[in-house]
Specification:
Length: 526
């Protein structure tokens, strides 16, 4: 899994590479510009020699990266217009050197024009055609006091210019390190902010790519390897879940194994009253568990739903809501999942309070979802989480807001830090559903999942996810890793469920689970 760093963590790594590993700013900048060219060349769908590029450079090292990229483009016969947003006199050190090299180039080339200001460049830009626009204006050093903060000129003018040319003329916009106007740590954006087609980020992924406006601003994200070693950001506070990690958490059945050695799961879910039924939530969770490879599934539902459950999930053994029977199966189970469609009436909350106070359940690996989270907010966090030894909560933003009394908008502004703090305070693991999905535990790195699309924005999707996670944990994966891998497989199943994401139902996601898991092991087999 790749590290996902804050701007502060990236600055520390840069400084350590220069001071401790003796790399030097010039070496890093040369690597950054060279790698940026390689990735740009791969992303550009024409011969780079036929391309015309407009590069806007700021006064910091991001502008210096732009100078190096300009040189590589020129070396490959592209035409370059380079604009200094700030006076040449403010450039220092390696940045001044980078510009001086280009100024020397200008004496020998007709395909390079260097403009000392945006005002000087505008008449020429208006008459020119560009295939490539390069944002080398701010880098990761920008800090936003609040979302939507207005930027001052000339930075705001440069951003608006590139966005306008992109929109009106269809040129491809490349952001070096991060789109200008985006906060690398929070993903909050300024007014205006660059809308990039490709972001070429240096060394490591940045948190802001995945939060708030980050996904809208960044386009495709590519990492430039600039020889800053990973150990400079370890232990990583945040990691991005990938296919390889997810595959490692899926434990295959041994040829000589039996059903009770491949994950014994108790699901306490579903409800039925005189006026409504939530049998579907229980069905989706149980089906997802079976499709993810659970060896043995017991399903506790109101006994009136038994026939419905047998027809929908014939692999599951069904019991009712008798406390003694539930606790007997709890002692037997490897993992217990509680909450999918179980209801919110007083009787149900009393049942959950009694169950969660029993050591037969509290001592098990426990997953609380949906209505169990509502009950948790009524019963009290400390009364439950203080006694449960290994528990995962799987809220969406609204449920997490109810648990914490933090407004959903405030959670969304910095979900990583908010979930990390809650997990540490309560000794629990939390999977906060969203884009990205955030998984945090009391210790260890926070994990981000970005697999999946709007295909998962449908009723019952969370029940499917819970069934998948519970099965991975029952089969032997650590609870944090099971949550992370389950989120990845869930997202991939949503991708595979249909070519039209907006038409995907939760039932279709369930049907695609085996395809999502199977394709990984087919790749490994090859």
């Amino acid at each position: 899994m790749q590290p996902v760093v804050t701007s502060q963590e990236m600055q520390k790594a840069d400084k350590a590479a220069i001071e401790q590993l003796l790399m030097g700013e010039t070496r890093l900048m040369e690597l950054a510009g060279g790698e940026a060219f390689r990735i740009l060349n791969e992303s550009f769908d024409k011969d780079i020699a036929d391309a015309s590029a407009l590069i806007l450079c700021g006064k910091g090292n991001n502008g210096g990266d732009g100078f190096v990229l300009a040189r590589h483009l020129l070396n490959h016969e592209a035409a370059v217009d380079l604009v200094l947003l700030y006076p040449e006199s403010v450039l220092q050190g390696v940045n001044r050197e980078g510009l001086a090299i280009l100024q020397s180039y200008e004496e020998h080339l007709t395909n390079l024009r260097i403009f000392a200001s945006l005002d000087q460049a505008l008449p020429f830009i208006e008459e020119s055609h560009y295939d490539i626009l390069v944002d080398a204006m701010t880098g990761t050093g920008l800090r936003l006091g609040k979302p939507g903060m207005e930027l001052a000129s000339p930075l705001s003018d440069g951003i608006e210019l590139l966005n306008t040319i992109r929109d009106e003329r269809g040129a491809m916009t490349i952001a070096l390190d991060i789109p200008s106007g985006l906060d690398a740590s929070t993903g909050c954006s300024s007014t205006p902010a660059i809308q990039a087609d490709v972001t070429i980020t240096m060394a490591f992924l940045k948190r802001g790519f995945y939060l708030n406006e980050g996904p809208n601003c960044c386009g495709e994200v590519r990492v430039a390897e600039i020889s800053i070693p990973r150990f400079l950001v370890e232990p990583s506070s945040c990691l991005l879940i990938d296919q390889e990690f997810a595959a490692e958490q899926f434990i295959l059945r041994e040829p000589s194994s039996a059903k009770h050695t491949n994950g014994k799961l108790l699901i306490i879910a579903g409800s039925q009253t005189a006026h409504s039924s939530m049998a579907g939530a229980a069905i989706l969770a149980a089906k997802a568990a079976v499709k993810t490879g659970a060896g043995y599934v017991f399903l506790s539902v109101p006994i009136s739903l038994a026939n419905t459950m047998h027809l929908a999930v014939p692999e599951a053994v069904v019991i009712g809501r008798d406390i003694a029977a539930i606790l007997e199966k709890a002692r037997w189970a490897d993992v217990i999942l509680i909450g999918c469609g179980i209801g919110r009436d007083e009787e149900t909350i009393a049942l959950l309070k009694e169950l969660l106070s029993s050591s037969d359940i509290a001592d098990k690996t426990l997953i609380l979802d949906a209505d169990a989270l509502y009950a948790l907010s009524v019963i009290g966090l400390s009364d439950v989480l203080g006694t449960c030894n290994n528990v995962l909560l799987t809220p969406h933003y609204g449920e997490f807001s109810r648990l914490t009394n933090i407004p959903a908008e405030e959670i969304a502004s910095d979900p990583i830090e908010t979930v990390q703090l809650f997990a540490r305070q309560h000794g629990a693991t939390v999977l906060l559903k969203g884009n990205p999905t955030v998984i945090a535990s009391a210790d260890g790195p926070t994990l981000l999942n970005t697999s999946g699309t709007e295909a998962l924005a449908t009723a019952g999707s969370g029940d499917v996810l819970s069934g998948m996670i519970a099965t991975l944990a029952a089969k032997g994966a650590d609870l944090v890793n099971a949550a992370a891998a389950g989120a990845w497989f869930h997202g991939r199943a949503g991708d595979l469920a249909s070519d039209v994401a907006s038409l995907v139902s939760s039932g279709m996601v369930v049907d695609a689970i085996q395809k999502a898991i199977g394709e990984i092991f087919e790749v490994e087999k090859e």
